[in-house]
Amino acid sequence: MIHIDHRSRVPIYEQIQTGFEALVLAGALKREDQLPSVRSLAKDLAINPNTIAKAYQLMEVSGFIYSLPGRGSFIALDRAALQARRRPEALVRFQEAGFQLKEVGVTKEEASRELARIYAQTSERRAADDSD
């Protein structure tokens, strides 16, 4: 489900949020799907429940999930809405990477080939995931 890298500089609560977002983007979770309880996820990931609670709280504040008292937490966004939300930031990072590539002498053709390779890998990975 979600992978936590304890050696990463990214805080665990952010890794949890990113993990759930990745599951929605991959189609493994859909709008209205229920998230595991704080206790259950804490046990599965061997993480302090307070860290899970913080992640859930931040996801709720951002509008990614919503909670119903006594019922649990649920995904609030579908894949398209999450893509639309994350698209502007991704394009800014892409532009910054483009500037860096140009600064170090990568040609437009080299960058285009690399981007095509990445898109092909992503498509192959999705096809493999869909066949599972």
From TrEMBL:
InterPro entries: Tscrpt_reg_HTH_GntR, WH-like_DNA-bd_sf, WH_DNA-bd_sf. CDD domains: WHTH_GntR. SUPFAM superfamilies: Winged helix' DNA-binding domain. Pfam families: GntR (PF00392). Residues 10-78 form the HTH gntR-type domain. Keywords: DNA-binding, Transcription, Transcription regulation. It comes from the Bacteria. PANTHER family: HTH-TYPE TRANSCRIPTIONAL REPRESSOR YTRA. This is GntR family transcriptional regulator.
